[in-house]
Design a protein that fits this description.
The protein is an all-alpha fold and 80 residues long. The chain is built from four helices and no strands. It has one domain.
Length: 80
């Protein structure tokens, strides 16, 4: 049986590298603490998707072919 440490969500939010993703996670934490659970879930989902897209753009900019193709497909879908 493995033991897992319980960490405060504020400390966990500090580990998010992207500034905008961190802001979105902090918004979700605020909603959660205010009892707006549905809003908190939606905010976390938005933050995760934003973070994935942000990291894909970062990797694509560094020359990763798969990430660059994903970003190109994503930008095309957003444009349409």
């Amino acid at each position: 049986m493995s033991s897992q440490a319980v960490t405060d969500v504020d400390v966990l939010s500090l580990s998010v590298r992207d500034r905008e993703s961190r802001r979105l996670i902090e918004e979700a934490i605020t909603a959660y603490r205010g009892g707006a659970l549905r809003s908190a879930i939606m905010s976390v989902w938005i933050a995760v998707v934003h973070d994935v897209f942000s990291k894909a753009r970062e990797l694509g900019g560094q020359g990763d072919a798969a990430s660059a193709a994903f970003v190109e497909k994503l930008d095309s879908a957003i444009e349409q």
